[in-house]
């Protein structure tokens, strides 16, 4: 494979995983009761992976991270719309790790 094919393949992989995270979140919304922690976790994961796919497309290097704002800042180096339109997206970052621990996700269960 040439460089462009490798990049395209990696983008597809990131998007496919992100799509599955989004599908998992949608299923969690359909459950009764709603699986709030699962929905929040998979929404964060989907956003993270879509942002990483964008970065791969534009060949912007990134560290292994779950921090949404770090990824948005990197995406903003390609297109400033990321900072303008995704001002509150960083709220998702907490759902990458904290949501998996009982003491950290009580506010999600209550909301």
Keywords, please?
single chain, 111 residues, mainly alpha, Four Helix Bundle (Hemerythrin (Met), subunit A), 5 helices
CATH architecture: Up-down Bundle
Gap between N and C termini, in Å? 48 Å
Series of secondary-structure elements, N-terminal to C-terminal: HHHHH
SS content category? mainly alpha
Mean pLDDT: 89
- In the CATH hierarchy, the third-tier topology is known as Four Helix Bundle (Hemerythrin (Met), subunit A)
**Total number of domains:** 1
**Oligomeric grouping of the chains:** single chain
Number of strands: 0
Detail the poorly predicted runs. Answer: none
Percentage of residues in DSSP E strands: under 5%
> What is the CATH class name?
Mainly Alpha
Number of helices: 5
Gross morphology is globular
Report on this model:
The structure is a single chain. The protein is mostly helical and 111 residues long. The protein has one domain: Four Helix Bundle (Hemerythrin (Met), subunit A) (Up-down Bundle). It is 62% helix and 0% strand. The protein is built from 5 helices and no strands. The chain has helices at 3-30, 36-57, 68-76, 81-85, 106-110. It is globular, with a radius of gyration of 15 Å. The relative contact order is 0.14. The mean pLDDT is 89.
Blueprint of the fold:
Blueprint: H1 3-30, H2 36-57, H3 68-76, H4 81-85, H5 106-110
Quick overview of this protein structure:
The protein has helices at 3-30, 36-57, 68-76, 81-85, 106-110. The chain has 111 residues and is mainly alpha-helical. Helix 1 runs antiparallel to helix 2 (36-57) and helix 2 packs parallel to helix 3.
């Amino acid at each position: 494979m040439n460089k462009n094919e490798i990049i395209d393949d990696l983008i597809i992989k990131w998007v496919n995983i992100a799509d599955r995270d989004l599908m998992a979140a949608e299923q969690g919304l359909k459950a009764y009761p709603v699986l709030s922690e699962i929905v929040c976790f998979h929404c964060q994961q989907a956003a993270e992976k879509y942002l990483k796919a964008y970065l791969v497309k534009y060949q912007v290097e990134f560290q292994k991270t779950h921090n949404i704002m770090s990824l948005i800042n990197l995406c903003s180096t390609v297109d400033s719309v990321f900072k303008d339109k995704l001002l509150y997206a960083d709220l998702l970052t907490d759902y990458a790790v904290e949501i998996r621990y009982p003491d950290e996700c009580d506010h999600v269960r209550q909301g």
